[in-house]
Amino acid sequence: MGMTFQLHFASQVPRMALFVSKLSHCFHDILARYESGEWNVHIPFILSNHEDMRPVADRLGIDFHCLNITRDNKQEQEARQLQLLQDYEIDFVVLA
User: Fold this and answer.
1) Are the beta carbons of 51 and 77 closer than 8 angstroms?
2) pLDDT tens digit string along 59-73?
3) CATH superfamily of this structure's domain 16-95
4) Bridge partners of 15?
5) The whole model's pTM is what?
């Protein structure tokens, strides 16, 4: 079993992607901590499989992507998720 780690200078703000489902309680808690400055992160985009949280992302000026996943398109949508993570140079993902 191996372990991978990275070290960053405190001045370097990590880039966090936020993946959210239709349930919003964790999503709102995370964004409250982000807005208050409790979490020193940059959130370039939010990803969901529902449009419900788009207005919140829009209010905060955060890009929002909605990828509806079905049995027929699962592999394609997962590839799109990975591409978004690369395009936005994301350091880590939080599931809400």
Assistant:
1) no
2) 999 999 999 999 999
3) Formyl transferase, N-terminal domain (3.40.50.170)
4) 42
5) 0.86
Query: Which of 21, 22, 42, 18 shows the shortest CA–CA distance to 30?
Result: 18
Q: What is the number of alpha carbons within 13 Å of residue 62 lying toward its C-beta? A: 25
DSSP 29: H
Q: Hey, what amino acid is at 33?
A: R
> Residue 21, class by beta-carbon neighbours within 10 Å (0-12 exposed, 13-18 middle, 19+ buried)?
middle
Among 90, 86, 89, 22, smallest CA distance to 54 is for 22
Which phi-psi region, left, alpha or beta, contains residue 50 (left: φ > 0; alpha: ψ -120 to 50)? beta
